Amino acid sequence: LPWERVKTVSLHGRRDIWPLLRAISFHDLVGVYTGGEDGPKVIARVLKSKGANSFQLIVFENLGYRDQRIREFSIDEVEEQSFHPLNFVLLKRIRLPIVPLRLGIDDEKYIHKAGLITKREVRAVALSRLDVFDTNTVWDLGAGCGSVAIEVAYLAREGMVFAVERQKSRSMMIRKNIERTGAFHVEVIHGFMPECLESLPDPDRVFVGGGLSGNSATVLEEAARRLKPGGRMVVHTVLMSSLEKCLSLFQRLGWQHDMVQVQISRSAALLGSVRLDALNPVFVIAGHKPI
Amino acid sequence: LPWERVKTVSLHGRRDIWPLLRAISFHDLVGVYTGGEDGPKVIARVLKSKGANSFQLIVFENLGYRDQRIREFSIDEVEEQSFHPLNFVLLKRIRLPIVPLRLGIDDEKYIHKAGLITKREVRAVALSRLDVFDTNTVWDLGAGCGSVAIEVAYLAREGMVFAVERQKSRSMMIRKNIERTGAFHVEVIHGFMPECLESLPDPDRVFVGGGLSGNSATVLEEAARRLKPGGRMVVHTVLMSSLEKCLSLFQRLGWQHDMVQVQISRSAALLGSVRLDALNPVFVIAGHKPI
Amino acid sequence: LPWERVKTVSLHGRRDIWPLLRAISFHDLVGVYTGGEDGPKVIARVLKSKGANSFQLIVFENLGYRDQRIREFSIDEVEEQSFHPLNFVLLKRIRLPIVPLRLGIDDEKYIHKAGLITKREVRAVALSRLDVFDTNTVWDLGAGCGSVAIEVAYLAREGMVFAVERQKSRSMMIRKNIERTGAFHVEVIHGFMPECLESLPDPDRVFVGGGLSGNSATVLEEAARRLKPGGRMVVHTVLMSSLEKCLSLFQRLGWQHDMVQVQISRSAALLGSVRLDALNPVFVIAGHKPI
Amino acid sequence: LPWERVKTVSLHGRRDIWPLLRAISFHDLVGVYTGGEDGPKVIARVLKSKGANSFQLIVFENLGYRDQRIREFSIDEVEEQSFHPLNFVLLKRIRLPIVPLRLGIDDEKYIHKAGLITKREVRAVALSRLDVFDTNTVWDLGAGCGSVAIEVAYLAREGMVFAVERQKSRSMMIRKNIERTGAFHVEVIHGFMPECLESLPDPDRVFVGGGLSGNSATVLEEAARRLKPGGRMVVHTVLMSSLEKCLSLFQRLGWQHDMVQVQISRSAALLGSVRLDALNPVFVIAGHKPI
Q1: pLDDT of B213 over the 70 cut
Q2: What is the predicted pLDDT for the residue at C13?
């Protein structure tokens, strides 16, 4: 075992599973100080809930003692076992994600409803405007198929990402896409805004990609209120009315803000040459909450 | 009869029917000095060949003489009649064109194959680059459904417009669209380029909108050769290879030229507001042949 | 004298000088039945007021009588002459306009303040959306250097065009550009809107290109009110707030309307090849007043 | 000292300084096993060469022995000291980079010649097309002010980035920008292509942003030859001829490839509202070398 490549995290006496989630997003070998006999089961349940079934658990018990034991399990096998309180779990990835997590994943690599995805190039611009730092807590409101949340997670590798989506079918797609990319530190929040935002930690960054049709003004205001001072909110819209709403909110709040219109055309083969296929223009508005 | 609104043309001793064609494009009352007993029939045949069946013929014979006669015919009734050599024909429009001839006709007013039309806004830009003068002879090569040729005809009201198209179904559409708009001084040339260009008069303006796939280089060169000194050639393409070909031709010929890319987005209703629907970008290249 | 090319108009017993103005816009030889001894002076004054000093007046007096007289004058020489009440004036263009009147005149052919001109390609789109008919009365509000009004005049050849502009320096530029292009049936209205619109005839078409900063809502509403039923109003703006105002006005009025965004890039020479130079995007909104 | 936050690297018996460079790009505390009495000096020289003068060196000698010694130096003070062969160096960042390294850094945060920078949004698209993985070796050819190379370095955090630039003034700007952002695992190569590429390790990714004017075809071909199988090459150009060259190279090589045109407009304040300011369109071509 290449121990120098093992990322270790601790669950000792705390309920925070985010360090574990981040670790399995970016590492193939993760060592967990579990802190108790239930430790391996807790880990297995977390992994199961995230669809992270590409990991094997190697449980080390009573290490260094005469009755030390090393056993290997799939995440499904752990539940019916019992463990010594002194244990350490090594998570070993046995299957790479179908889609390696990174920036600029092709649209067709994400499971999505046709046409309803933030296109690769526009996503890139939105991400660049979001100005994500490693440790940021990020909300993606109206997350759709999760493409933005997932690539944000690649940047916020020490942070937490919440993908909020009210449609059941879409929130299922986000889960699928998390599984496919291994972006396990994205948490899917299936619920209505602004109510479902209440329980989330205040964000450093908010991305609003959709779900603004009905009570959009309320959602924008609530997100703006919850955003940490110094934070940034990026809204991505194709609707003139949402653009208007968003610009006037930022103006009213006195936030520094700007907007870009992104017009992408992609090449398509035609008669042995290429022509340009235009994507619909998108407005990307970025507001900075004063410190 | 409001004689001051009658546009008069003469067919006396000449074969040139263009003055007649221009007259019926722009006037509801056209008086023709026919110059012979066959005159009324010749006129009726011309009108029939252009689908200009919205005109009635009023034939005045032996005017001022005792046996003067005034008879009214549809264009279909003229053929079996016989006329006195001294006659004058008054053409009277009895039905307005379905689509009034002008600049900026809506795409859906033209009969066309879905997607295969120079879009209204792009057409406007192409026309503005073509720099048409009233008396110009204009070729529209690869005329498609004829929308450019027809609006060119509105500008070249004292000129001649040739819409060249090799596909039978398209050339039929052009004829239909001429009928609908009453742009009778557009002549449809159904044939292969460059061969079919041979018999046409040298143009002051050439518009190339399509049909450049195969032997495009040859067609462009032949059109450039035939263009009158001081003339202008506008090429409209979505293909990178055609753009390249066209720019390098103009460069090689030493013509002054420029290019614009036109990117239009049209509003579409969405959720009680509007979003933008992008049309594919088009390149419009204009070259000026030195005097 | 090629009499068949003479366009004749009559000023007999009426004050309407528009037929004269249209005639000198499109014809090099214009015959005027003046109807009185002051006729030649009235004509000379009209021409002077429009800067149409490229015409010579040939005055025919008492034609067919023994004391018939034919005299030739510049427009400056007429004032101090006296004429027989029976006279006919032939206007003869002795210098062509510097810039031939047509569609798609190059930006640099218009005298304008740098950057403050509706760019050639955008102008073409705006004109195509305006859907001008020959006989239309057209208002161009916030006319700037007059480029749109002038090219509208090319299309509304039997109509009347009013170019409204509140800035003195700009209204002077419009006059210059009318002189340069010979679009004499454009009338410059130097004044504040909406007050100065009161005396104008109701329009068939309204183009709003500028001057909407301050009391824009009022101007738009007044223009909409005055527009003839079945008429069309086209607003061209770069400001998001004007776009918003305009869309909501049309919505409130219940007019059918649409919008296009026009993004033009022009080629520029670079390193022996070409690159694209983007013009700023413009929104063109068109509203149709119900009949 | 929070030892759990110390990133340790080893220079023992090897000349590879990249692990050290990556460590100081991403960590504030870096422990180095130097492997020799010259170790601290070697480290100080490396840091000096990269302008990484925001680090303090804490040298631990003979740790655990009676004559153990802990001394602190600035990078300028180390050269004249002598050290025990058994030493360990702790690098401690005492000043954060002026510009935190991340994706989407504002254009004005980079020192650059006006207009000569890959604009933030276009940079984002180019990066998303480049599909960078953590461990990639990346060439940035014609690096300009280094903005792309620097943000690539943020993504290739376990890789090596080479910013190649032939103009002295520009390569100096890249150095400055590396200092400002702390992207120390970007190596500036000041030299002429393709010659200067010879000594570089084969790349997984090549970005070509400029410097293609003269012998562009040669450079593109050489870069394509050196690219590892399965690698990706992204060319970003505004020149039609470079676009053409690049498309035909990829076609000739039989590489899968695509192109996007990126047209960004940025909001600008005007009259209390916003208008759109267009950036010039850019072509981004991506080619995939077969495995």
Answers
A1: no
A2: 65
